[in-house]
Amino acid sequence: MIFSSLQTELDERAANDLLRSRRTLSTPQTPRITVDGKPYLAFSSNDYLGLANHPQLVAALQQGAQQWGVGSGAAHLVNGHFSPHHELESQLSDFIDKSESLLFSTGYMANLGVVQALVGKGDTVFADKLNHASLNDAMLLSRAEMKRYRHGDLAQLEQLLSQTKKGRKLIITDAVFSMDGDIAPLPELLALCEQHDAWLYVDDAHGFGVLGEQGRGSLSHFGIASPRIIYMATLGKAAGVSGAFVAAEKVVIDTLINHAHSYVYTTASPPALSVALSKSLQLIAQGDALREQLKKMITQLRKGLADLPWQLMPSDTAIQPLLIGDSKQALALSEGLRNHGIWVAAIRPPTVPQGTARLRITLSAAHTSSDVDQLIGALHELAC
Ligand SMILES: *Cc1c(COP(=O)(O)O)cnc(C)c1O
């Protein structure tokens, strides 16, 4: 009985071309992957700088495991906080130019923890409608009142802020929208925060390592800084490893250490990962050539796909979604590419709004010009 109701839901998903399943990679994350036994040229990972399989990071992780073992064995507040964690936190604070930072095991957990620790009943969270699912879940968990504004609609946000008289106010936004690739108007959001005495929580999962001077991320990209900004970035995307961090004022970080459940009640990540991440931070800081290569690939792709029957969404970042609309058609196109030996994931509702299924093409510094040409050629053939 219970099982049949689950099956009914799954069958409904399948009937609407929305059923999800997994594919198994038998090679490391690079532009050339083997999936379910077949080789593909891939444009689907968030490994924007090509660091996930970088020999120096592999060596750093091995050396870290040699020195620190594999497991941390405890939560940070018990006895699982190791010097590699601590050093990485201070390197990250310096890099982002914030006074303190705090490591989390994943970006999902960082978002849950920050929002839940900073706001609660009687407070209000203002959120862009296209924010990442983890930010939406974080709002629910916090029990604060949720006010979602239309994507990038500052006038609506201003109105919602003006209507809110009591409690703490927290505006939360993706810096680079994960399924669209566009960049949030952070300076304007910060100005609204100042007018309305709110905090700005910036999720820079897709900007850290890629945008700004030396890859310092979206705050550097815009040249903004403020104690009101609480900054979060993930370390499993451009940084190529795993984890996340929050950078903010000391009082905010102390609050997280005391109140963020996803920080307090979980085992610390292996210290060896922090050893690898310190190396990754060096590669990011010295990675201007990688970011230059990525930029070239973006320009080449946009030029090459300008005349397709489907539109690339407006984006200057590594995320270059090709808007298809219908889920079935998006799946068919993704399968068509696979038949050409190219891997691009189709993204469907509820991950994106109804009627906006898309191919989420992502580029990496590890792609070459001939890789991008191959994708351009295949999409033109499929368009005929
Ligand atoms: C990937 C992502 C996260 C989650 O980070 P993980 O480290 O993968 O858990 C959070 N926010 C955004 C915008 C993301 O794209």
Uncertain residue segments: none
* Largest sheet geometry: 7 strands, mixed
- Assigned CATH class of the largest domain: Alpha Beta
What would you give as the CATH superfamily of the largest domain? Type I PLP-dependent aspartate aminotransferase-like (Major domain)
Question: pLDDT average, as an integer?
Answer: 97
Question: How many E strands?
Answer: 14
Hetero ligands: pyridoxal-5'-phosphate
Radius of gyration: 21 Å
Describe the model.
With 384 residues, the protein is α/β, with parallel strands linked by helices. The protein folds into two domains: 17-49 and 288-383, Aspartate Aminotransferase, domain 1; 55-285, 3-Layer(aba) Sandwich (Aspartate Aminotransferase, domain 2), CATH 3.40.640.10. It has 14 helices and 14 strands. The protein has helices at 2-15, 55-68, 83-96, 107-118, 133-142, 154-163, 186-196, 218-222, 250-259, 261-264, 271-285, 288-304, 327-339, 369-383, and strands at residues 32-35, 38-42, 100-104, 124-128, 145-149, 169-174, 199-203, 229-234, 244-248, 311-312, 319-325, 342-343, 345-347, 357-362. The strands form three sheets. The chain has a seven-stranded mixed sheet, sandwiched between helices. Strand 1 and strand 2 form a beta hairpin. Helix 2 (55-68) runs antiparallel to helix 11 (271-285) and helix 4 packs across helix 9. The longest helix has 17 residues, at 288-304. The chain binds pyridoxal-5'-phosphate (PLP).
